[in-house]
UniProtKB/TrEMBL annotation:
PANTHER family: SI:CH211-262H13.3-RELATED (PTHR34153:SF2), SI:CH211-262H13.3-RELATED-RELATED (PTHR34153). Residues 242-328 form the DUF4806 domain. Residues 203-230 form a coiled coil. This is DUF4806 domain-containing protein. The keyword Coiled coil applies. Transmembrane segments: none annotated. It comes from Oreochromis aureus. It comes from the Eukaryota. The gene is SMARCB1. InterPro entries: DUF4806.
Length: 375
């Protein structure tokens, strides 16, 4: 007998035990509580020799024996999971053998004359559809044809030479008279009957879409005409400006501040700045600033100003100028007060002024000319 056995109790339970615990149909069992599975499994794995205090179970049935504990465990799991018979519990060497795959020939490339094999079904091409000639179509001169002519009208096929009971000199029937003969053949003309309805529905939908598109184009044309008229009027009003833009120096900026003390001059500049557009606020600010001042003057300006003991490094504050207020009012009038804020405007102006010396090739950063008009 091998070292490990799988036994079945009279109650139906199964377990892996050492072969030294089994004596015929009697089995010695450790005197541990049933719930103390840890100690029971430890005694099984260590193959503890039965003692005088051990319990005895009888009768028990020996299912199979193995040389190693792992083989016995696998056989037990197979027995419990698949509910197989004891004859199916093969040894480890038998379970490791794999069956060779049988190669079956492809029936498409084999040929056999035996009557037991059923022949494969051949697929023939679908027959062409039968077209019914229109009732108003003119009659064409009869031409000789045979039953193999698939494109021939139904009336021609009814009078084929295969019909022996019809003489050869029988005149061909007209489409009106052949209508009754054609009805004898079941023809699926559901698609032909539905196709005109689909074409009418498609045409109606296209006409509706075309009318909507025409209406939208007319509305856009009216809006463009109104915008052009408004822009032309505003350009005429803003044609005479109190300032000569762009400003090139601090002296011109001082003259512009003096000229923007009147309300008429401020309104004219606001209308002029409102005509300069762009895709975003930053783009509008860049365009307006480039239209109002040059990079030479922008290199001497700063948003909040910069005052130092070195006069060559001082910069004038742009936010305190009347020109800045006119630019802000013009952009607000263009895009609306809800989309315009002083914070976003200040960020865009600061960014444009910061890179003004770089747009000059770096010359504005090394300038040593003192700024006139500053004490």
């Amino acid at each position: 007998m091998k070292d490990w056995c799988i036994v079945q109790f009279s109650t139906g339970g199964t377990e892996v035990v050492p072969s030294s615990w089994l004596n015929g149909e009697k089995l010695s069992w450790p005197p541990y509580p049933p719930r103390d599975t840890f100690r029971i499994h430890a005694a099984v794995k260590r193959r503890v020799h039965p003692g005088a205090t051990w319990l005895t179970y009888a009768p028990v049935r020996l299912l199979i024996s193995h040389d190693t504990f792992q083989e016995a465990e696998r056989s037990l799991q197979k027995y419990l999971s698949e509910h197989c018979d004891t004859s199916d519990l093969q040894s480890e060497a038998e379970t490791q053998t794999t069956l060779k795959r049988k190669h079956k020939p492809n029936p498409l490339y084999t040929y056999s004359d035996s009557e037991d094999e059923q022949p494969t079904k051949k697929r023939f091409p679908q027959a062409p559809r039968v077209t019914i000639p229109a009732l108003t179509a003119p009659q064409s001169s009869p031409q000789p044809t045979d039953s193999r002519h698939h494109n021939a009208p139904p009336s021609f096929r009814h009078h084929s030479p295969l019909q022996e009971n019809i003489p050869n000199d029988t005149p061909l029937q007209s489409p009106q008279h052949a209508e009754y003969d054609v009805e004898a053949f079941p023809i699926d003309d559901s698609r032909d009957s539905v196709r005109p309805l689909l074409q009418d529905a498609t045409a109606q939908k296209m006409l509706t879409m075309l009318s909507d598109l025409t209406r939208s184009v007319n509305e856009l044309r009216e809006e463009v005409r109104a915008i052009r008229s408004t822009g032309s009027n505003e350009s005429l009003d803003a044609g005479v400006l109190p300032l000569d833009l762009p400003l090139n120096s601090i002296e011109e900026l001082n003259h512009a501040e003096a000229a923007l003390t009147s309300q008429e001059a401020i309104k004219a500049m606001v209308r002029r700045f409102a005509l300069i557009g762009g895709t975003t606020l930053e783009v509008r600010v860049r365009r307006v600033m480039a239209y109002a001042i040059t990079n030479e003057l922008a290199s001497l300006l700063n948003w909040a100003g910069k005052k130092t003991k070195d006069h060559t490094k001082q910069k004038r504050a742009f936010k305190d100028t009347a020109l800045c207020r006119c630019i802000f009012d013009g952009l607000t009038q263009q895009i609306g007060a809800n989309s315009m804020s002083e914070f976003l405007f200040a960020q865009a102006v600061q960014k444009w002024l910061r890179y003004a010396p770089d747009r000059l090739g770096g010359a504005g950063r090394t300038s040593s000319v003192p700024i006139p008009g500053e004490s």
